[in-house]
Design brief:
The complex is a heterodimer. Chain A is α/β, with parallel strands linked by helices. Helix content of chain A is 32%, strand content 24%. Chain A has 13 helices and 16 strands. In chain B, the strands form four sheets. Chain B has a seven-stranded mixed beta sheet, sandwiched between helices. The N terminus and C terminus of chain B are likely disordered. Classes of the chains: A alpha/beta, B alpha/beta.
């Protein structure tokens, strides 16, 4: 019998599809829901739980009421105990209170579905006293405490249940708002959580790889321009893509998804706007993997969720400096799309642009 | 140190020393030779020419080329010159002095001294490359026979010995690829496919020749995936240029199919066999279907590395590609050996004349001394030594063998990772290497690209005894345990070497280099000696994107 703690932050990630770069704060959450964004956190948590059930059928969950976990357990028919009752809509205070209750209830592993903000709340409550696994359901997720995708949670928990997983302390970070305002992507350290040491299933923390030099950017920008001529080009978030756009004389957003069409740049489109703007036309998408993590879709670019089904794999233009690719230490690039079917569509060897005259064939998992 | 003296026949006298030796390098703080001499100091008193001799020389061709001023050589005695260079030599970790298996991928091995006798024989050393062929028949015979041996070792139909180094041979290979496709009227091929753990010169030479480079990354087993390969290959692929075993030491058993996939799209398959030390007499380039290959004679075939040159590269080609080989081709007819007229399809020579003759002679002698059986033994011993070192080294905490999970044995080298030690102690692989200098050993961490974190490549070859291999592993193990006890001690190493710390900047920034007395005076003493005439770009010449090289010498 494996005793699992479960915390679902029901509003985690809503800011992603809404193009709000995060979901912290009641105002942001209300704004996101007004934009017609679906809450996906419970859905992702249930994907993870279903995966655990397949590998560890003898499962008991300890969780909070309703959206905090009990509702999801009921839907999947998992026996569960509620240790924290919360009124809905829930707040960050519920996450912390539930985490503290789970620490006292003594669980084999504490699962939480959310993003960096949720990880911070959990860290504040349990420190490094409880083994935790994050179900990735937030927006950016720079912390090293999450599984790569919800489907990786099952194998991670199975390794914990089987006693084969070593443990390590992993950093909990969140975006540095001051740095972001200055046009830089940086993280602040908020503490450490104890997580299973399983590098093939758990993501690493985001690592900042020094900025690409101008010559490299100019060469790559030329190739991308030639390759995407004539069709709409979506620009993913991050400094690499922003700096490439700067070569074309465009001021792209640092954290948003932008549309470039006929030389016109529209910045910061949300999922609904992107779906509308692209329509049924062929389009290309320019992204650069998150440094150190290698995630190309599903971190900080959930605005793309609704157009991924019509993106051809060959139209996914991944740009990555050789240094950034090397920093992955041989780990594959990761797509964490809304469904396993979409993940499978982009999986396999992919042509990555690593320079003006260089490409790499690198696996996407 | 433990000494065990046994007199019974069953246990002969043993002198066993555990752990690395107590070493300290010489430290001479030797000035530059230019600073040692004094004006007028002489080693040899050269008699002044008589008036009659001077008169006889007057108007002769010698006076036309005679320099106006004496060269600014240091004025110093013979004994002082000898001591100067002997001291400098004592401050180096030469190939004949240390166990340099830590210079993985370089294939450091013993260069038999007897071969120096052959190479320096005036029968070759005193000849000139413009001499008539009939007067250098012996040299030509050695070259022709060496071509034959290398053809047999690689399975190729023809061999050119012209390239002066491995990268020059790779450049020749790329030139042949380009010429071959051009000759067939196939102008659409602008891509070269390689792997991240093939020697970077393949990508660099192909890029220099104007190709786009498509690089394959391995899966978790260290091998390239056939699906990835197929995604890379296409009608634009000019060639597949790969190493096998790669720099990870892992041999790809699918190599035949990999070559076939390249051929299926009309590309040539080029085998970088610079380091063939683990496969000599076991597998051959042609047997896997390759169209071109090259050997570095200074790696596999024992010629000295000589601090970056001169080396020698041999190129092997199929019958179909033979006409494209660069340089003069030796043929034999009833009058002996001679150079054939240049084939109209031949690519441009990669260097003047025929090749680096002394190194060709050394490689020839090495192959002759070993024979076919001996060459295979070289490979088998090198592989055994490598696996022995790996088995011992992996017992050290904090080191792992990249891409090797125990199911496959590596061939001639292993790319280790000290990521574990670095995580636990903060000590990097490079810092560990500085400490190895305290044991009088090389440890090299230049393993581009840095895909493997905290890399170290160890290649034991066949030349080192078990005792030496043990000594090397013991030294590394001691350094690793010191890192756990006292990281700062490792970081501040070396403590017992000739020079204690080198500024990495000064190693990589050419502006700080002074490779001549003149450069030293200019860069460090503020002198402004005349800068020799520099090539001036014609007005209509294309401007390179990269800045012109600065004048350094």
């Amino acid at each position: 019998m494996l005793r699992c703690g479960l915390i679902i932050n029901p509003v985690a990630g809503v800011g992603g599809e809404a193009g709000l770069a995060g979901s912290d704060g009641a105002d942001i959450q209300r704004l996101a829901l007004e934009r017609g964004v679906r809450k996906r956190s419970a859905e992702r948590a249930e994907r993870a739980l279903a995966g655990i059930l397949r590998l560890v059928p003898d499962l008991e969950v300890v969780t909070g009421s309703g959206e905090l976990g009990a509702a999801s357990c009921s839907r999947l028919g998992i026996p569960h105990t509620v240790v924290h009752e919360a009124a809905e809509p829930t707040t960050a205070g519920d996450t912390t209170a539930l985490a503290a209750a789970l620490r006292d209830a003594v669980v084999d592993v504490l699962l939480f579905a959310g993003g960096d903000g949720t990880a911070r709340d959990v860290t504040a409550a349990v420190g490094d006293a409880v083994l935790c696994v994050g179900i990735p359901a937030g927006v950016k997720m720079h912390s090293a405490v999450f599984a790569l995708t919800p489907d990786d949670v099952g194998p991670v928990v199975a390794a914990v249940a089987g006693g084969t997983a070593q443990r390590e302390l992993a950093e909990v970070v969140d975006i540095d708002e001051a740095a972001r305002r200055a046009g830089l992507l940086g993280s602040r350290l908020y503490g450490q959580l104890l997580v299973p040491k399983l590098p093939r299933a758990m993501q690493r923390g985001k690592r900042s790889i020094g900025a690409a030099d101008l010559g490299w950017l100019a060469g790559v920008a030329e190739v991308v321009a030639a390759r995407s001529a004539g069709d709409p080009l979506l620009l993913g978030p991050g400094t690499t893509v922003r700096d490439l756009a700067a070569v074309w004389g465009l001021e792209a957003s640092l954290l948003g998804v932008d549309l470039l069409e006929d030389g016109e740049l529209t910045t910061d489109l949300d999922a609904v706007a992107l779906e509308h703007a692209v329509g049924d036309r062929r389009f290309r998408l320019l992204v650069s993997p998150v440094g150190g993590q290698g995630i190309v879709l599903g971190r900080g670019n959930q605005q793309l969720n609704r157009v991924l089904d019509r993106l051809r794999p060959e139209d996914l233009i991944v740009v990555c400096s050789p240094e950034k690719l090397a920093a992955l230490g041989g780990r594959p690039l990761i797509v964490d799309a809304p469904t396993p079917a979409l993940n499978a569509k982009f999986a396999g060897p992919h042509r990555i642009l690593t320079g003006a005259t260089d490409e790499a064939i690198y696996p996407i998992r | 140190m433990t000494l065990q003296a046994e007199t019974t026949d069953s246990t002969p006298l043993q002198v066993h020393k555990s752990g690395p030796r107590d070493y300290h390098a010489a430290r001479w703080d030797e000035p530059l030779i230019f600073e040692l001499g004094r004006e007028g100091e002489r080693g040899v008193l050269v008699p002044t020419a008589s008036d009659a001799a001077l008169a006889a020389l007057d108007g002769s061709p010698e006076t036309l080329v005679r320099r106006k001023d004496a060269p600014a050589l240091p004025e110093i005695g013979q004994a002082q010159v000898l001591r100067h260079f002997l001291r400098l030599s004592q401050e180096t970790l030469g190939a004949d002095l240390n166990v340099d298996i830590g210079q993985g991928t370089c294939t450091m091995k013993y260069s038999p001294k007897i071969n120096e006798v052959f190479a320096s024989s005036p029968k070759h050393a005193a000849t000139h490359p413009l001499q008539h062929e009939s007067t250098v028949q012996g040299t030509l015979q050695i070259m022709a026979e060496l071509e034959g041996y290398l053809a047999e070792i690689s399975g190729m139909d023809a061999v050119s010995l012209q390239a002066g180094a491995g990268s020059a041979a790779i450049w020749a290979n790329v030139s042949i690829v380009r010429a071959y496709h051009q000759h067939r009227g196939d102008t659409e091929r602008d891509e070269v496919v390689t792997t991240i753990f093939s020697h970077p010169s393949n990508a660099a030479a192909a890029r220099t020749a104007g190709y786009r480079i498509i690089t394959l990354y391995p899966g978790e087993d260290g091998l390239i995936d056939l699906d990835a390969l197929r995604a890379a290959l296409g009608p634009r692929t000019a060639a597949l240029m790969i190493t096998n075993p790669e720099d990870t030491g892992i041999f790809n058993p699918m190599i035949g199919q990999i070559v076939a996939e390249a051929h299926a799209v009309g590309a040539l398959a080029v085998y970088d066999q610079a380091n063939a030390n683990g496969i000599l007499g076991i597998t051959r380039a042609r047997d896997a279907g390759f169209d071109l290959c090259h050997f570095n004679l200074h790696k596999t075939f024992s010629t000295p590395h000589a601090c970056g040159g001169p080396a020698a590269g041999a190129i092997g080609a199929t019958k179909e590609l033979e006409p494209f080989l660069p340089g003069p081709r030796i043929v034999k007819d009833e009058d002996g050996y001679r150079f054939a007229p240049e084939h109209p399809l031949a690519t441009a020579p990669v260097r003047p004349f025929y090749g680096v003759i002394p190194n060709l002679i050394r490689a020839y002698s090495w192959i002759r001394a070993l024979g076919a059986e001996g060459l295979r033994q070289v490979a088998e011993t090198a592989v055994l030594n490598n696996n022995y070192v790996m088995a011992r080294l992996l017992q050290v905490d904090g080191v792992s063998a990249s891409y090797l999970d125990g199911t496959v044995a590596p061939i001639e080298q292993v790319r280790y990772s000290w990521a574990g030690l670095h995580r636990d102690t903060g000590v990097t692989s490079g810092e560990l290497g500085q400490r190895l200098a305290d044991f009088g050993m090389h440890f090299w961490t230049s393993h581009h690209p840095y895909v493997v974190p905290e890399p170290a490549t160890v290649e034991p070859t066949e030349s080192y005894s078990k005792r030496e291999l043990d000594e090397y592993v013991d030294a590394l193990a001691q350094a690793a345990s010191e890192a756990r006890r006292d990281p700062e001690f490792i970081r501040s190493a070396p403590h017992r070497s000739s020079i204690h710390r080198l500024d990495a900047e000064s190693m990589t920034d050419p502006d700080t280099w002074a490779t001549s007395w003149r450069a030293y005076r200019r860069k460090y003493l503020g002198d402004a000696p005349p800068v020799p005439a520099h090539w001036v770009r014609p007005g209509d010449a294309p401007v390179r994107k990269r800045a012109e090289k600065v004048f350094h010498r």
